[in-house]
Design goal:
Layout lengths: L1 H12 L8 H9 L7 H36 L8 H38 L17 H8 L2 H27 L1 H5 L6 H41 L4 H12 L2 H22 L5 E4 L4 E6 L9 E7 L1 H12 L4 E3 L1 H10 L11 H17 L1
Helix pairs in contact: 3-4, 3-8, 6-8
Length: about 350
């Protein structure tokens, strides 16, 4: 039974039940693992591109007509040669680029904006690194039959259904005008089909954008689920952030040694050392230029107290035994800080006694 209980505790500690820490979130973000819906990009791109076609369609039509006219008024009379063919393709490519530049610019802005809205500014090359684990057929099979794959299948079917219904509805509503295009001019017929195409594109983009809200919420949920941490992970992370306890203890010991060494260097400049007499030692100095009140330059108990007294004796610093005052000063005073107001009278009496002794000497 004890073994079984220990075994269950081990698995409980390793279960991913805790929310990810800020450090874990930052680490996963550096790896390119962020909640993101591709449908947001697609929907936003469709709306912006078809909106751009609606705004710049007239300019594109004029540019295309100009190329068409020039082809049948100028290019048709050219001799077929290497130079003429090169010039023809170069000029047509430049004119085509000019005509489509606004749409391409809108598409680029839409792609960048939709990604910024979801993940913000992020640069990482981690997803591009070659990883043999990605080629593991067992993991690949698990992904195919996973809950995420099922969600993606349902989402794809829903998108196809929505776009099909929207497209069919628009065509059905405009079927009468569509049947009458044979009676219209070529320009009017093209304008009608262009208008219908833009309408279908905008409606499909809006539908995808609405669907992408649900998809983004699911992606966030799935991302949070995947980056959950176990209690063991939290302890390991805390240990890594805090450092090895052995190293920490060595650092603290080194800091104590440095502090003690600095204190010992200050003792020779003290005016008096107040002792317990065996357990406590507090070195006091009064310097009007530095502070209006006396301040502590060194303090310690036991071994450190003995060292303070040894340094004081070696430098002819007067030591005064006052057990209550020594204990109180140690507990309520800080290094290089003025003593508390409640000790002014007692310390003043000690300093006055020291100054009288020094005058006698």
């Amino acid at each position: 039974m004890p073994y079984l209980k220990l075994h269950l505790q081990y698995f409980a500690a390793d279960e991913k039940t805790e929310k990810a820490t800020p450090k874990k979130r930052e680490d996963t973000r550096k790896k390119g693992q962020v909640p993101k819906s591709q449908d947001v990009n697609t929907g936003f791109l469709l709306i912006m591109v078809f909106g751009g076609l609606y705004l710049f369609g007239g300019q594109i039509q004029e540019a295309m007509m100009a190329m068409y006219e020039k082809s049948f008024t100028e290019y048709i009379h050219w001799n077929v040669s290497e130079e003429h063919v090169f010039t023809l393709f170069l000029e047509l490519t430049i004119e085509m680029a000019k005509a489509l530049a606004p749409i391409m610019g809108v598409a680029m802005v839409a792609g960048i904006a939709s990604n910024l809205l979801q993940v913000g500014i992020m640069f990482t090359g981690e997803p591009l690194k070659f990883d043999l684990k990605k080629m593991d057929p067992i993991k690949g099979a698990k992904k195919i039959f996973s809950a995420r794959a099922l969600v993606e299948l349902v989402k794809s079917l829903l998108k196809i259904t929505m776009i099909s219904v929207i497209t069919y509805a628009i065509i059905w509503v405009n079927k009468g005008q569509m049947m009458m295009t044979s009676q219209k001019s070529v320009e009017a017929a093209l304008a009608f089909f262009a208008r219908i195409t833009i309408l279908m594109g905008l409606a499909s983009g809006l539908a995808l954008l609405l669907l992408s809200v649900l998809d983004y919420l699911y992606q966030r949920y799935d991302h949070e689920k995947n980056i959950r941490m176990s209690k063991k992970d939290l302890k390991d992370e805390h240990k890594n952030m805090e450092g090895d306890p052995l190293i920490k203890s060595k650092i603290k010991e080194k800091q104590r040694q440095m502090s003690a060494s600095r204190m010992m260097n200050e003792v020779p400049g003290a005016d008096v050392v107040i002792t317990n007499p065996t357990h406590y030692a507090i070195a006091i100095k009064y310097d009007e230029a530095k502070s209006d009140a006396p301040f502590v330059v060194a303090k310690g108990v036991d071994f450190v107290a003995q060292k303070i007294k040894e340094v004081a004796k070696a430098n002819d610093i007067i030591m005064v035994e006052n057990r209550p005052l020594a204990r109180a000063l140690y507990q309520h005073s800080e290094m290089d800080q003025p003593i508390d107001e409640q000790f002014y009278k007692a310390v003043a009496e000690v300093l006055a006694y020291v100054y009288r002794l020094e005058k006698k000497v």
